[in-house]
Amino acid sequence: MSPLYTIMVEGAGAATCSGAERVLVALERAQGLGKLKGLPRKLPVGCRRGGCGVCRARVVEGQYRHEPMSRAHVSEADEAAGLVLSCAIYPLTNLYLRFEMPQLKNSISEPTNIT
Amino acid sequence: MAHTGVLRPGFIQLRVLDMPAAVEHYTKRVGLHQVTEGKDGRVYLKSADEFDHHSIVLRRAESAGVDMMAFKVRDDSDLDMFEKRIAEYGIAVDHKAASDVDLVREAHQSRITVDHVAAGEQPGLGRRIGFTVPSGHRIELYAHADQSDPKPRTLNPDIWELEPHGMCARRFDHALFYGPNLEEVLNFFTTVLDFKCAERINLPDGTLAIWLTCGMKAHDIAFVKHPEPGKLHHVSFDLENWQSVGNAADIIARYDISIDIGPTRHGITRGQTIYFFDPSGNRNEVFAGGYTYYPDNPTRIWDETQIGKSIFYYERVLNEAFLSVVT
């Protein structure tokens, strides 16, 4: 049984995550259970495998291990500064996390002829 | 023979972050077979139901996404013919007088340059020509592929030679790409490569998406408007039927494969589908059904009032990931 850690999400609340679990997946479960009430919107969940970049976050405090993360979203300098794709990290200690998502790059414009 | 020129999707080359994890996913879970590994480390895969040498190429890289998609043409001389047509397309545009709206729009088309890839650059393949379409995606054409095992028998063929496994993918079916300049992409594919537009989504501010076919499937390649060029939304594998889609869903749950949406159905193409992700975050689709498209069929059009149904027919609303999650 992997040890359990607390993931504190800035401005949103806390979730529990095992050392064998992707942090983002633990946050998804917590949100499904009605926790993380401070989140302004649904968690930024994309591929959950380190490729698409939507769950980009900064680990402000704590240790983690990680699987490969696309360099298109986390450069070597970013990585050194604690930026991660939260789906690709596993906690080694309690973590303090701040989401730093990229701007949504696509949207559908609303019809303009409302009148 | 009615079917000439571009015959069908041939292969797609994907970038993966972790090669062993990718090979396990595509062989054990999706149900493909590894044909060979190249000297440069690229891995070549196929379905046992495909004759040609390979249909999926995996390249280890630092970012996920797609390198190129290639279509097979009928004859070697088609490569010369398409090279000439691509060259003339650029020149014809350059010489047009920009005297009305259509021509002004066409004058914005940039010339598309063709390059050559020698036979053998990928094992089992003949020479290829390649070019980048205005959405930023590299497209290649080739005429020859060796066959490789496993493959179907041609004399008294059984339904399968080798028991299907995993999700039982029967072939690489199509890809959906995200990028800019959809009108230019549509014009190029239809006027130069002789594709047809089977279906499209029109929004008040222009074209959101196009589904293009070179044969009788509802789509062989599709594009969604997106500001960043060259992005991959998904690579799709053909399954036999709805029951196979259910079997794929069982595998996705059993092996904790990251899921996006489904099983569900597309209004566009009518395909039964699941979107999920490979271990590098590239979206995969398993796809069954879809209508037959004949070249004289009109283009089916969806507008902003039914856009949810067009993509996810049962949910009738786009999920958050559809327009934003790409590699």
TrEMBL record, chain A:
InterPro entries: 2Fe-2S_ferredoxin-like_sf, 2Fe-2S_ferredoxin-type, 2Fe2S_fd_BS, Beta-grasp_dom_sf
Record-annotated membrane-spanning stretches: none
Top-level taxon of origin: Bacteria
PROSITE patterns recorded: 2FE2S_FER_1 (PS00197), 2FE2S_FER_2 (PS51085)
Domain spans labelled 2Fe-2S ferredoxin-type: 3-103
The protein's name in its UniProt record: 2Fe-2S ferredoxin-type domain-containing protein
Native source species: Acidocella aquatica
Automatic annotation (TrEMBL), chain B:
InterPro entries registered for this protein in UniProt: Glyas_Bleomycin-R_OHBP_Dase, Glyas_Fos-R_dOase_dom, GlyoxalaseI/FosfomycinResist, VOC_core, Xdiol_ring_cleave_dOase_1/2, XylE-like_N
Transmembrane regions listed in the UniProt entry: none
Mitochondrion recorded as keyword: no
Domain VOC: 8-144, 171-289
Pfam entry (one): Diox-like_N
Keywords associated with the record: Aromatic hydrocarbons catabolism, Dioxygenase, Iron, Metal-binding, Oxidoreductase, Repeat
Cofactor: Fe(2+)
SUPFAM superfamilies listed in its UniProt record: Glyoxalase/Bleomycin resistance protein/Dihydroxybiphenyl dioxygenase (SSF54593)
Record text on subunit structure and interactions: Homotetramer.
Family: Belongs to the extradiol ring-cleavage dioxygenase family.
Name of the protein this chain belongs to: 3,4-dihydroxyphenylacetate 2,3-dioxygenase
